[in-house]
Structure formats: structure tokens, C-alpha cells
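Example 3.2
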Amino acid sequence: MWCYMKVILNVFISIFFFIQVGYSQDDIQLDLFELPDVIFKEIETPEGYQSAYELKIKQPIDHNNPSNGHFYQRVWLSHKDYDSPTVLITNGYGADRNIVAEITQYLQANQISVEHRYFLESSPENMDYDYLSFEQVTADLHRINMLFKEIYSGKWIASGISKGGSTSILYRYFYPDDVDVTVPYVAPIKFSKEDSRIYDFLDNMGTEQCRTDIENYQKSLFNHSDELKERLTWYYKGKGLKFSYLTFDEAYEYAILEYPFSFWQYGHDCALIPDDNAGTDEQLSHFIDIVGMDLFSDRDMRAYGSHYYQAGTQMGYYGYEIDEFKELLKYLPTDKNPSAIFMPDKIERPFDGKLIKKVYEWALTADRMVYINGALDTWSAAAIPANDKVNSLYYFLEGKDHATARIRNMTESELVLLQSKMKEWLYD
């Protein structure tokens, strides 16, 4: 049952102070009651923590004009103790459950995990995308930080993974004094709607033979499209996925073009790429395993609509080089490289990259940052490059990808350096 802080506090405050027989209230709950515009309920406590809560925090739709309405942002609190540091997890998407992050476990910290504005339950009734901007997103985080600094006065760390990692960098840019350390995992900072660094990465990653095998497999998918699409049609009907934002034929071609990006993003083995002798089952199994068409279904278009809006207006993204496939494309335009951005409801908005370039320039010289990237990951092409003139750490973990570039997979020497810096920044 949700606890409506102000109402309950005003009516029953005397109970907390004067009726103690047989009842003991967790101190953190009393602190939560004191926070304005916060409602909460207790949830299952993670191992090693005292208590945990799902919160809904009232946020202005427009922080510059709070009278313009509000929404409730979903947040999870895992409370360890008041003397521990606090990790603010800056999710880049929806987050439908409480998970204690790796960095939180490593630091034995309290954790506040924030669902991103305009995803899942953290959405206003009227999805006016004009208020889905870097400025508004980071203002959400700042307000949460200010609320919880009434409870936790120790050191603060911001961290996120992928788009959430990029959000942690943006947050530090706008509010440099909110946290003491920022730990972005696999966090790209793109320059444009079609960041050419992605192309450079894909043109040089792996051996020449592996790149040739990737291209040949893509061409095979095009050349055998009729047979493969017939099988895939039934497969996706079985999954209950529909294709109307893109037609099934368009989605199939997009998925083929997406294949190299996904292949390296998750560090797959070049030896597993089907060759010309592979049967239909092997071709399809590999295609579904590496990329598939789910990303281009109506379900995923709806789920990631806010993500695509940010990519198409401020964040930037990537496209698909088609020079080698122009003669094979039947359903996608060939006059320019197709974009990987699919704006919600196909709305049109201009892209403005001035702010993200300022963020990138700032990040080049920012102290107390720990960038954790995988050397195999496609997104490492857009990572913040190392700068030995600033007091920050830069990891490009060998053999690791978007899912495995984590502290738990660091070498002993990498981990020793991280421990030393964290001690310097948080405990000395």
C-alpha cells in the first residue's frame, strides 16, 4: 500500500512519537515521510540491506515552469546504512524492478535507482516530447539528489550503463557538484544523427577475413530473402509481433544492415558466421541470435520511442552504410544511408548537436570520472577517449563487449588501480 507522506504524517504524527508499544518504525521510513512530494511502499529487501522501497516522486513536466503540470517518476531505494556512500543509478530507459548494481555492491553503498523520464511508469499522461530534453532529464536527477541529501550526507556516486551511462555524464555536466564520482559504463557520446565513428569502427574491427565473412553473410541474407522471410513471418507471428511502423520487408532489410553493429556490440565469435554452405536452419538461427527483427517491430518502436526522440533531437545516433548493398536493397531508399533513428509516430524534429558537442569537450577534461568500456563493443567508437592530464580513469577492457565490460571482468592490475582511485576520491 502506497504511503502518502503528507497526509499520513499530519494525521498520525502523534502515534510515531507517543505510541511505541509493540511497534517499531524503521528510521529510514521516518525520513521518507519527511520528504516532500514523495510516496512510497516497502518492497523485498536485497541481501545485505536493511530495507528497500519503491518510490514515486512528483516531478514538474517543465522544471522551468512547474505550473505546467507534473508526473510521478519511479525510483527504487535500497538502504544499507546512513554512513555508507550513496550511488545514484541513472537509468537510460524504463526500469521495472529493483536491482542492486555492480558498482553499488562494490562500494557497499546505498542505492537510488531512477527510471528515466518518459519511459514506462515515469511518463506524464500527455507525452509532449518537447519536454524530453537533456535539461529536463538532468533536472529530474538533480531534484532527487537534493531530496535525498536530506537523508544521506556522505559521498555520492552517479552511474549508469549504455544510454544510462551517457545520462550520468550529462548529469555531471549540468550539475557538477551533485556527486563526487561518476562511473559511466559503455557510455557513448555521439556527435550527430549519423556518427561516422561507428562506420570507422566497423570498417576496421576484427580481421579482414572476419569483415569479409560478415559482408558475405549479409549478402546471403539478401539473396535468399524470399525463403528466409517466409520462415521468419511464421516465427514472428508466433511471438505475437506486428510490423506496421515498418513493413515486414523493410524491417528485414534494416535487420540485415544492423547485423555488423549487433555482432560487435555483443562480441560474437567470427568462427560462428554461417558460410555459403550453411543450411537454412543455420542461417536463420544465427540471424535471430545476433540481431533478429524484434527491434524493428511495433512493440519495440513503442518501447523505445522516447529513446529515438532523444537520438533524433539532441543525443545523436548512427546509420547504415549501404555502398555494398545498393543493388540488393528492394524496400529501403538507396539515395542515402538509412538512419537507425525511428521517431515516435514518425514526427519530424530538427537535430541540434551543439549541446552534445559541449558535453563531449567538457568530458575530455573532467576529473573523478571512471569510464568502463569494452574494446569489442561497437559503442566504444563513441567513448570518451583517455586523457592522462586529468584525474580520471579510462578502461577499454580487452575481449569485452557491451554486456561484459564490467568491474567483475577486470584484470587484477585494472582492479587495483580502480580501488586506489576510489579510496582517494571517496574515503581519504
